[in-house]
């Protein structure tokens, strides 16, 4: 098979001993592999100059549109090493599709799904030695992204765009065992409005989220919860936690999750919706109000809450705090369904449970 993204190998790879030290204690997003993928788009040539090259900075003119108007989108997925040494991606076609729709929303050119998959797979092959072992939920985190690099301050979609993929080895998200987190029910910020960019995975959404995240931490919470409206009464429907989608489990075995529309369509969310029925939970995508959550938690009809996302897979949510109130879910410890679903997703990803849905894609 010919390479869609031809490799020019670095002559100065990170020395073996240094790489081994990094892989022994990786830190999310801190260390990067030896190579990167890239391609350039212009209106006349479309996508061209596809390559895998040594990791290096971009030469960027100070007027590059992304620096001023945030015309940028990204993706996040992982490569998992199985016990036999093989390396796999998990549902990367969904990331490719989401990347294309995020790009369309930001008036960036669409990258064909084949280019997305080739760039990711060929980068993983070039940097195979950077894929950690299979013990302890380690993986290679892969970050495809696209941005407006045209040197022009005018207000229109850029006519020069760069696509790139970088990769970073990551350790287990919960280094000392799965821990429940608390959410701050913020009444000051919304994440997205109908017709906005909530469904696009774009950097600008994150730039807007840090103030809310800071506020959550000032209130002693780990993460922020976004509702679909503002107001100190804390009423409104649940959206997501800003980096993760939300799921609730009820005492009568239903799995509730807010509907698509203004939230990000998570791959982990879609996966959990399928697995829920195999676990005997009836999945319902429908609006869930803060009142339903609060009173359901109090009377025991809502027994578990968790968040989903590629980085942590499934994060138990054990408590909520808002203006003048707080409450816990169940007994304040991660729930049994939450932990079982989490283990099953991981077991599929690491080849320990049968991949009955054909979700894994072999790279090496
Ligand atoms: C990426 C992301 C998620 C989780 O999506 P996964 O595909 O499951 O990783 C949830 N919310 C937001 C805002 C995101 O950017």
UniProtKB/TrEMBL annotation:
Pathway the protein takes part in: Amino-acid biosynthesis; L-valine biosynthesis; L-valine from pyruvate: step 4/4; Amino-acid biosynthesis; L-leucine biosynthesis; L-leucine from 3-methyl-2-oxobutanoate: step 4/4; Amino-acid biosynthesis; L-isoleucine biosynthesis; L-isoleucine from 2-oxobutanoate: step 4/4
Family listed: Belongs to the class-IV pyridoxal-phosphate-dependent aminotransferase family.
EC id: 2.6.1.42
Catalytic activity: L-valine + 2-oxoglutarate = 3-methyl-2-oxobutanoate + L-glutamate; L-leucine + 2-oxoglutarate = 4-methyl-2-oxopentanoate + L-glutamate; L-isoleucine + 2-oxoglutarate = (S)-3-methyl-2-oxopentanoate + L-glutamate
Parts forming coiled coils: none
CDD domains, alphabetized: BCAT_beta_family
Cofactor: pyridoxal 5'-phosphate
SUPFAM superfamilies according to UniProt: D-aminoacid aminotransferase-like PLP-dependent enzymes (SSF56752)
Modified positions (N6-(pyridoxal phosphate)lysine) in chain numbering: 201
GO biological process assignments: amino acid biosynthetic process; branched-chain amino acid biosynthetic process
Highest taxon, organism lineage: Bacteria
An example Gene Ontology molecular-function term: branched-chain-amino-acid transaminase activity
The organism's taxonomic lineage, starting at the top: Bacteria, Bacillati, Actinomycetota, Actinomycetes, Kitasatosporales
Designated name of the protein: branched-chain-amino-acid transaminase
Keywords, alphabetical: Amino-acid biosynthesis, Aminotransferase, Branched-chain amino acid biosynthesis, Pyridoxal phosphate, Transferase
EC main group: transferase
InterPro entries noted in UniProt: Aminotrans_IV, Aminotransferase-like, B_amino_transII, BCAT-like_C, BCAT-like_N, BCAT_family
């Amino acid at each position: 098979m010919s390479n869609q993204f031809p490799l020019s190998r670095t002559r100065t790879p990170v020395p073996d001993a240094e790489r081994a030290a990094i892989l022994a204690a990786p830190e999310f997003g801190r260390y990067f592999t030896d190579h990167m993928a890239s391609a350039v788009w212009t209106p006349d040539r479309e996508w061209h100059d596809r390559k895998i090259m040594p990791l290096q900075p971009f030469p960027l003119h100070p007027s590059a549109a992304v620096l001023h108007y945030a015309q940028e989108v990204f993706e996040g997925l992982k490569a998992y090493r199985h016990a036999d040494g093989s390396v796999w991606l998990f549902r990367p076609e969904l990331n490719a599709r989401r990347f294309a729709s995020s790009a369309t929303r930001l008036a960036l050119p669409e990258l064909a799904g084949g280019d997305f998959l080739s760039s990711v797979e060929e980068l993983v092959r070039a940097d195979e030695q950077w894929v950690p072992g299979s013990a302890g939920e380690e993986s290679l985190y892969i970050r495809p992204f696209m941005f407006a690099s045209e040197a022009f301050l005018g207000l229109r979609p850029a006519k020069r765009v760069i696509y790139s993929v970088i990769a970073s080895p990551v350790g287990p998200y919960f280094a000392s065992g799965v821990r429940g987190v608390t959410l701050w029910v913020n009444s000051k910020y919304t994440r997205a409005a109908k017709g906005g960019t909530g469904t696009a995975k774009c950097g600008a959404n994150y730039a807007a989220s840090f103030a809310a995240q800071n506020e959550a931490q000032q209130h002693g919470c780990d993460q922020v919860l976004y509702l679909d409206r503002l107001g100190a009464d804390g009423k409104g429907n649940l959206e997501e936690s800003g980096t993760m989608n939300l799921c609730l489990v009820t005492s009568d075995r239903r799995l509730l999750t807010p509907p698509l529309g203004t939230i990000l369509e998570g791959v982990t969310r879609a996966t959990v919706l399928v697995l829920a029925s195999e676990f005997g939970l009836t999945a319902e995508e429908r609006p869930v109000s803060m009142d339903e959550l609060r009173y359901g938690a109090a009377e025991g009809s809502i027994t578990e809450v968790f968040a989903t996302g590629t980085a942590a897979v499934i994060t138990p949510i054990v408590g909520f705090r808002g203006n003048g109130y707080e409450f816990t879910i169940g007994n304040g410890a991660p729930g049994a369904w939450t932990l079982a679903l989490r283990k099953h997703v991981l077991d599929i990803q690491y080849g320990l449970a049968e991949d009955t849905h054909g979700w894994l894609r072999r790279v090496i």
